[in-house]
Specification:
homotetramer, 199 residues, mainly alpha, Arc Repressor Mutant, subunit A, DNA-binding
DNA sequence: AATGAATGAGGTTTCATTCAT
DNA sequence: TATGAATGAAACCTCATTCAT
């Protein structure tokens, strides 16, 4: 029995992995269930054995990745004794996460606006995002206590940084060249965010 | 003759206005041409009299709004004698623009990824975005000469701020409450961006 | 009054001429009323002042050209003293007519099959085709009396030749090169039709 | 596995059969996919499971029938020892083919003129038509060697006969009654083609 | 008489989801 | 459990025709 469940879990993960790749490379609407099944190497119906829905599949992916992110933040930021390193790590993690999953997150928001995401699935995501935010708040709170941050409400600060990183990774307009060197971008962002743009 | 053209222009603007509202409230895919026509109070075919395409309609909207933005930036930033005010205005304009048109812009990017935006229409948008960026660069360049900005390549800085504002306005996850007070957000952003988060 | 009518006639002819060109170059369905109007240099509505219908326009064209053909056949065949020359002329006229107007004729038949051609318009065409056929029959009848044709019912022979020329000019498959030399085709046809393919 | 494929093939054939009937009775444009589906007794989408396109469906039909024709010509003409019988058979086969499929062929040509037939599908048809023509050429070549045909280039002769039969079967104007006795038409054509119209 | 803006019926195609095997 | 054939709703777009000016 446990063996069977292990196998199921494995298959579910496989599907999720493949879907992640596809949803990351193209908008949600441009990826068909057919294509996912073909890529996974299973029948179309099989996908519906593991996920209620195309939207459910999307939600599960995000949930999984958010879980990983929370884990990383907890380890590298929350439990990190050095405040500056903690903040630094936080910025990098945010950047990498949003950069990697921007397409997917944006798809999810879009589906949500169209009321295609069931309440129960939404809650799961909201909870994880809440946890993530709380951890950031905790870090900034510590910064306030140590008087090493500008005097701003920690919660607002956390929200702001979250927002900033969301779109700083959005595959937007203008020349593509800028997107091509993440290293530069993140270091530039850290510079601006820690020192401001004024000399 | 001029009267007729005036009327046509008026009608085109009316359609554009209505479409702007709808595309702003919901993703592109969730708005049907039928609905736009109904809202305008005309037949479906009429829309196609003024715009080649649903995608063309979207592009025209953006082009129109970008034009306005460029005009404002030129006036309030480029031609502003005081550097700090110029930068301040720039940040506010960016924020308002992306906040107001984020849904639309995001729709456009998505359609572009699916190769639904004709080359010629894309160029129009790209040109305007280029102009906008150049103006920002010019402002930052001046800041560098006056030694009032951190020593960072102006072009990169402009790109970064553009990116930051794109998503800082993205109607993303988490609690919606945060989105509800733009005034607070923009002042917080300006604080962080000018002074950095470290004390 | 007569002047006005002359002008009307002239305009009607102009529209017919332009439509003829367009319907000859592409299938009926692929030519829009807009395009005809643009090419003529008048408004779309104007066309409907002179013709009830797009199908009516098509019918009128054919009627006009058929009239010309009947005229030519009467002159060059029916009133020609020399039987062989009469037949020869008939073959050439048929060939040129069907070659020039095959697209249009084929369009008309198609529309008729879709019941888009009003009874009254159809009759006009049928009458002219009847006249044309009768003339051919008359020529062949004479040939029979002079015992210079194979003993076949004249009516059937006329119908057969008509049919042969219809499709011998149809812009069909295979290499296009063959179509390119009408002179060769017509002389070859005449050879085969007068002597048969057997040596 | 083979069973499933057999069933699929069967269904594909069923659809093709029904479509053949409909496209034969009316022009391509006048037959809707809905109608085909209804006639077959399946959903609209099912059609697209077996054929990429409405145009693809049309092309497949023609390809299938051309294949049969090629097979018949090979058997009854190319491998026939008696030249006259071979030619006779060829004329009959041509007549029957074009008479039966004229509407469809004409539709195909029309769609091609409107660039609705993909290159790859066109090639398939062209190839088969090429094969068919080559076989006719071979027969006539033999006739030339045996000095039993008028001294005309075999290729041109084959093309001419092809053309003649195409349109001799076109459901054209005039009284329909003539069309009603194929036997008479074909015998008359053979008479004319073998002996010419002159006595 | 001439115009051309407005209309909306109608057709093709896609694709998430179901369900019999 | 796994499959993939079947489905049909839904959306975009075209274009002949009308009619107010």
């Amino acid at each position: 029995m446990s063996l069977k469940e292990k196998e199921k879990e494995l298959k579910k993960n496989l599907i999720a992995e493949v879907a992640l790749q596809l949803f990351s490379s193209r908008p949600f609407e441009a990826v068909t269930v057919d294509e996912i099944a073909r890529e996974v190497g299973c029948g179309k119906g099989t996908i519906y054995l593991y996920f209620k829905n195309k939207d459910h599949l999307l939600t599960c992916l995000i949930s999984r990745e958010l879980e990983k992110l929370c884990h990383d933040i907890e380890e590298q930021c929350l439990h990190n004794a050095d405040l500056l390193t903690a903040i630094d790590n936080y910025l990098v993690l945010q950047f990498q996460f949003f950069r990697g999953y921007n397409q997917i997150l944006s798809s999810w928001v879009r589906r949500r606006l169209q009321n295609q995401v069931r309440e129960e699935w939404m809650e799961d995501i909201q909870n994880k995002l809440g946890r993530k935010l709380e951890m950031a708040v905790a870090v900034f709170e510590r910064g306030q206590e140590e008087k090493r941050l500008i005097p701003v409400e920690s919660y607002e600060l956390a929200r702001l940084l979250e927002a900033i990183f969301q779109d700083a990774t959005f595959p937007f307009v203008g020349e593509k060249s800028w997107d091509s060197d993440p290293e530069r971008i993140i270091s530039l962002m850290k510079l601006v965010l820690t020192r401001g743009i004024l000399a």
